[in-house]
Structure formats: structure tokens, C-alpha cells
UniProtKB/TrEMBL annotation:
Cross-referenced PANTHER family: ABORTIVE INFECTION PROTEIN, SLR1288 PROTEIN
Domain CAAX prenyl protease 2/Lysostaphin resistance protein A-like: 119-203
GO MF term list: endopeptidase activity
Protein name according to UniProt: Caax family protease
Domain of life: Bacteria
Coiled coil: none
Keyword Protease among UniProt keywords: yes
One GO biological process term: CAAX-box protein maturation
Spans traversing the lipid bilayer: 12-30, 36-54, 74-98, 118-137, 144-163, 169-185
InterPro entries attached to this UniProt entry: CAAX_protease, Rce1/LyrA-like_dom
Native organism: Dellaglioa algida DSM 15638
Protein family membership: Belongs to the UPF0177 family.
Key words, A-Z: Hydrolase, Membrane, Protease, Transmembrane, Transmembrane helix
């Protein structure tokens, strides 16, 4: 792995780890209690900005990175978003046909419980988390890794880790969505494309759940 790739990967992964554990550390030190969710929201949003800065500061053009027009990014981002809905509905229909029941998402249920009391938490879930996850799972574990191993293997590794990170009973859905996001990144040569699809997906899920 080249020096620039190593710096980019380490900076993003270390930054993500710090952002992820920071609310827990602060809660143990200061017993945040009632303000834990405002702190988590700020942590995720500011964390996303930090990872964007780290990605540019420790710049690395891997074998996928290039330049794409915003019109191209938005178009493929929206198309990718639609395909994520198709994937989710398809897997759920297959699951229902086999098991005669649907498996509720534990992550979504927990998020909606928080969201019902703290609406601003939507910023963390629909904006902060997707940006950070794309930089970690697509930029580092797919894009950077694809510079040294076949892209198909890098995509599978990235998607498996993405699926395991969401461990809530929908591993197949997250794995396939992860593969789709890898494709969007590679198809447009721009990580912003998968970010757009990811942001739209999370925002729609929260909106639908809130209206139910």
C-alpha cells in the first residue's frame, strides 16, 4: 500500500473510531444523561465534516477516484437510491415467502424511539452517518483497497464489513446495498454519488417510519 493511501486510510479510520466512541467516553466522564442525544447529533454531524476534511487533507487518488459532474452525481445518486428500495423490498418479499413473516430492523426501531423524542437526531442518521460510512466503507475498504486487490474482492470485503457493522437481522440487505454503493462509486468515479444515494435512503426510511 502506498504511503498516501496509508495516510488517507489511517486518518479516516482513526477519525471514525474517535467519533464513534466519543459520546460514550463523554457520558462516562460527565454523565450526560438528558443531553446525550444532542451530543451524539453534534458528534455525528461535526464528525462527518471532520472526515471530509481528513479525506482532503490526507488526499489520495486511488484507482477509482476521478472527477464527475454534479449532474452525473445527482442522477446516479437518485438511481442508486431507487435501486436500494428495490433491493430492500425484494429481500423482504423473499424472506416473507420463506419464513411467512417479516423481520423488524432493530436499528431502525431504536432510532425511531430516539427520533420521536429528539427530532433533530435525524441530522445524525440522515446526514452524518451516511457521509462517514461512505468514507469508511466505500472510500477506504473499497476504493483504497481496490488499488491493490481486484475491485470485486474489495467490494465484497467492504460490503461484508458494512453489513456486520449494522448487525440487526438484515445482513443480506446491507450486503447487497453495500455492493450497490460500491458500484455507484466506481461507475461515477466519485464518492459523493454513493453519499447521495445513502443520504436519500436513510432520510426516506426515517420519514416513512415517522408517518406510520
Amino acid at each position: 500500500m502506498s504511503k498516501s493511501t496509508s495516510k488517507n486510510s489511517i486518518a479516516i479510520l482513526l477519525g471514525y473510531l474517535i467519533i464513534f466512541i466519543l459520546p460514550t467516553i463523554l457520558n462516562q466522564i460527565f454523565s450526560l444523561k438528558s443531553v446525550i442525544y444532542p451530543v451524539m447529533t453534534a458528534d455525528y454531524v461535526l464528525g462527518a465534516l471532520l472526515l471530509i476534511w481528513l479525506n482532503h487533507h490526507f488526499s489520495n487518488k486511488n484507482s477509482i477516484d476521478g472527477q464527475s459532474k454534479w449532474s452525473h452525481i445527482i442522477l446516479w445518486g437518485i438511481l442508486g437510491f431507487i435501486l436500494t428500495l428495490v433491493i430492500q423490498m425484494g429481500i423482504q418479499l423473499i424472506s416473507y415467502a420463506i419464513l411467512k413473516t417479516t423481520v423488524a430492523s432493530q436499528n431502525t426501531s431504536e432510532i425511531m424511539t430516539i427520533f420521536s423524542k429528539y427530532p433533530y437526531y435525524m441530522l445524525a442518521v440522515s446526514l452524518g452517518a451516511p457521509i462517514m460510512e461512505e468514507l469508511v466503507f466505500r472510500k477506504v475498504f473499497f476504493g483504497n483497497l481496490a488499488s491493490f486487490i481486484p475491485p470485486a474482492f474489495a467490494a465484497m470485503i467492504s460490503s461484508l464489513l458494512f453489513s456486520l457493522a449494522h448487525n440487526d437481522g438484515h445482513l443480506a440487505i446491507y450486503f447487497l446495498i453495500g455492493l450497490l454503493f460500491c458500484y455507484l462509486y466506481k461507475r461515477t468515479d466519485d464518492i459523493k454519488t454513493s453519499m447521495v444515494a445513502h443520504i436519500l435512503m436513510n432520510s426516506l426510511v426515517l420519514t416513512i417510519q415517522a408517518l406510520l
